[in-house]
Amino acid sequence: MGDYTVIADVSASLVKLLRDQMTPDPIPQPELIGLASPVDKGDLYLSLFLYSIRESGDNRRNQMVSRGVGELQYPPMAVELGYLLTVQSPAELQSRALDEHRILGRAMQVLYDHSILRGSMTVGTLAERDEEVRIVLDNAPGTSMLQMWNFADTPYRLTLSYTVGPVSIDSTRIKTTKRVLERDFRIQG
Fold first, then answer.
1. Is the per-residue pLDDT at 1 higher than 60?
2. Rounded distance between C-alpha atoms, residue 182 and residue 177, angstroms
3. How far is CA 167 from CA 2, 54, 67, 125, 180, in A?
4. Could you tell me the pTM of the whole model?
5. What is the pLDDT of residues 84-96, one digit of tens each?
6. Which residue range is the domain that position 64 belongs to?
7. Staple partner for 99: which of 22, 56, 91, 123, CB 3.0–4.6 Å?
């Protein structure tokens, strides 16, 4: 379970993983991998963009969580995060496509090999609470990617979609309870 910062912590953990595994080859410096919209003009070779947050019905909990004597916390909300992974190489035009394919292939390899994000790969509340989340490549057809890539006057860039989750966001609602102090049994005949 995580605090409201858990979404930012997942994003930071993904960037940390990619920076650790993709530098200096095929990307020369860690700062060239970051969080940004695919259409942001910048110097990133590889960008992650959180484009959707969906409640995860399969991971929804209905039971209250005990928070000590006399307190129950409402169950956390389980969500799945949708990320776009976009490559933008600064290479010359004649070698740009091959360079982007190499970068994308390595990013896919890293995310596949580390498909469960946990332990030293995590930051923030994920690391503090020893949480883990799955990373799964979406099998979206090309037409879906083109529809998602609907930014005004921006040519399509090589992009993949990943789902990361489940991510739990704690509820702030607490219910107080009283302990049962005595029992009363009566047998009627």
1. no
2. 15
3. 8, 10, 20, 11, 35
4. 0.84
5. 999 998 889 899 9
6. 6-173
7. 91
φ, ψ dihedrals at 85, nearest 5°: -110, 115
Domain count, the chain: 1
What CATH code is carried by the domain that includes residue 121?
Answer: 3.30.2000
| Contact call for residues 80 and 163 (beta carbons, < 8 A) | yes
What is the rounded (10 degree) CA torsion for 146, 151, 154, 159?
A: -40
pLDDT category, 150, cuts 50, 70, 90? low
Bond from prior residue into 38 cis (ω within 30 degrees of 0): no
Q: Cis bond leading into 90, ω under 30°? A: no
The answer as to whether 185 is a domain residue is no
- Give the helix ranges, DSSP H, for 26-164: 93-113, 124-128, 142-148
Asked if residue 136 belongs to a domain, the reply is: yes
Nearest residue to 82 via CA among 122, 53, 61: 53
Distances (CA, A) of 54 to 3, 69, 181: 17, 33, 43
Q: Compute the chain's Rg from CA coordinates.
A: 22
Q: Is residue 35 part of a domain?
A: yes
In a domain, 188, yes or no: no
Q: Is the pLDDT at 98 greater than 90, yes or no? A: yes
